[in-house]
Amino acid sequence: MSNHPQALVLGLGLSGEAASRLLAAEGWQVTAVDVADTPILQARARALRVLGVTVHLSVHELPQAEWGMAVPSPGLPPDSAWLSGLRARGVPLIPEFELGWSRFRGRTIAVTGSNGKSSVVKWLADALGQAGLRAVAVGNIGLPVCTAVLADPPPDWLVIEVSSFQLEQAQAFRPDIGV
What we know:
The chain is of the alpha/beta class. Helix content is 36%, strand content 20%.
């Protein structure tokens, strides 16, 4: 039995899969759910079940449990019934990028804004790499933050692309540098 409470991951896109993997590696009892049921999601579900994650596809009502945290898909609207119900029950909602950031022991740069985020993230990661540091571009640019955190060895820097919508959901996110 784990000392960790149960974690609920809402959505099995790349960020949901990455959050599930990180939480399972930490010993959380993870349940991941998605409203869809596609061959890609079925393959992700099989891989996560091997790690001890409980996965439910074609879900329209959330499983009831004493959730210690929930990690919502960035695609879920903030006013969705799922998120509203979890908030009403006092379940902490932690975006995937913030979950990964909270476990990372290196330095972080967060990039947000209207235009050019991906270009700036790539440029900063490349510049850090040219300076001899291990830097990884993560977040909306493609690679989930939780995936980079599980890398062995871990990078020195994470350059995180985040949208204003994602930042609105963050609770404690404090990068070393914000652009």
